[in-house]
Amino acid sequence: MVSITLKDVEHIANLSRLTLTEEEKVKMADQLGKILEFAGELQELDVQNVAPTTHSLPLKNVLREDVSREWLSQEEALSHAPDKENGQFRVPAVMEG
To answer: For bias kind Basic and acidic residues, which ranges apply (predicted)?
Structure first.
């Protein structure tokens, strides 16, 4: 098992701006040790005949063909707007200025 000391946990907590109790430090040391142990087990796997992938499922290009088409004019887009001003939709402020 990979040994993570309380000093290691305190250093990581400090970098992460976390305040941990002594009990949490002990728990984190144990959990981080288990994570590193599992990562070590993964390093032992033989992956020589495994093809590199960027996704676990086979994907194909699902984008539509890029075709020019007619869009609404500004007047048409604003024709049903409940409130408009200077050729734009007018909406309530979301943030106070």
So the answer is: 77-87
Helix (H) / strand (E) element for 4: namely none
Supply 45's token pair: 């796997």
Q: Is 77 helix (H, G, I), strand (E, B) or coil?
A: helix
We report the CATH number of the domain holding residue 11 as: 1.10.20.60
Residue 88's H or E segment, with its range, is: strand 88-89
Q: pLDDT, tens digit, for every residue of 64-88?
A: 888 999 999 999 999 989 999 999 9
Number of domains in the chain: 1
The structure's pTM equals 0.50
